[in-house]
Amino acid sequence: MEWPWHKLKRLEGLEEQVAQQQRVITELKAENERLRQLLEEAQRASKRQAAPFSRRKPKAHPLQPGRKAGSRYGTPCRRPIPEEMDQTLEAVLPECCPCGGPIRETRIEWQYQTEVPPPRVERTGFRVHVGECQQCGRRVQGRHARQTSDAVGAAASQLGPRAIALATQLNKQMGLSYGKTAVVLQELFGLSVSRGGLSQALEKVAKKAEPTYEKLIEQVRSSASVTPDETGWKVGGKLWWMWAFSTAEVTVYSIQPGRGFEQAAAILGAAYAGFLVRDGWIIYPRFVGAVHQSCLNHLLRRCKEMREMVPTGAAQFPCQVQEILQAALELRNRRDQDQISAHGLAVARGRLEIQMDDLLDKSYRSPLNRRLAKHLRREREALFPFLYCSGLEATNYRAEQAIRPMVVTRKVWGGNRTPRGAHTQSVLGSVLQTCRQQKQPPIPVLQQLLCLPEPIALDLTHLHGPPPST
Prior knowledge:
single chain, 6-stranded mixed β-sheet, 13 helices
């Protein structure tokens, strides 16, 4: 007996639904297993000790350490022979050979050492001449170019400018705490100083550097391209934020209690109209006068992580986004190497933009895909400006590199105890990082700031003259 055709059709539909449900169950089981493994790894990572650990498994066949033979040796390098020598010492032959036989000298070979001289503390006394104005009766005193202040009496004994500059570099750039900085000065130079004394000395440097810090902010605001970034910072045990605004010439840090537009505009200026190369943080588009370039490295990293998290079918969208962004970077490289004409660049750029628009016009079922598509729609105008403007960076690596020294400092001693200490950290960190960008040694700059009678703004991009002679 044959079944009615409508019952057969309904049965086929039910079988198809069952098969579809089975496929969904299989995908969910695989996803559940993958998430379970990730959860176990996260739980193990939370119980790791503070000692360094490997992020990945060791390679099965790692390369041998050390120099490689043949063409893989690398660029040969050796310490150059000193042009001048302070002394010459004789390494004379022994009276006899270890076997007991006589020795006849055949030649003389040279060996060279470049050594650090034994450090010592230099103690200087200033005979400060004090007088009185015969017209108004005001007290007037002299000042030497190497003095850092006019204090006398109970505050007459002070640290010198080079010692304070070295302590500033050790604490604010190298990340040593006040206690460890005091130990370094004591062990190397025999200079005894307390942690409180160092704190007051560094605050004094920051006050002298305040006009220079304001000038750095002006240079950032007038720069054609700025790369901002931010990271968490503790002040008095509470969460603040450390902002970094970096250009090709200068860097400005600012530790503030918030992560909003007001804090960013306090340094960059709300009306900034240059190129803003930034990540996808939501406050940056509020700089409406700027030309925005979104960091493609952040997007590529996000696509890579999504490919590992979403099911196989849903991973197609992040794969397509990744391909378009990588093609854009390759097109940028061809343009910079003069391998493509202006017309060819415009055609290829237009194709990439059309491909991205087609992807963003679609709707997606996966929540992660919907979230990524929403973010890309918001960032659409900031994805490809680097293909229109030669020399514009496509990543915010400059700000991330500028943040790194401050992150090391944060890992060592956590942050600052007071807002005043946070401001000192911002000012001195900006001066030190800018000197590093300018390839200028920071200690002479800090000495120059300390020895100024009144704080003035130094142009760190065009340093004027040497520090006071010692």
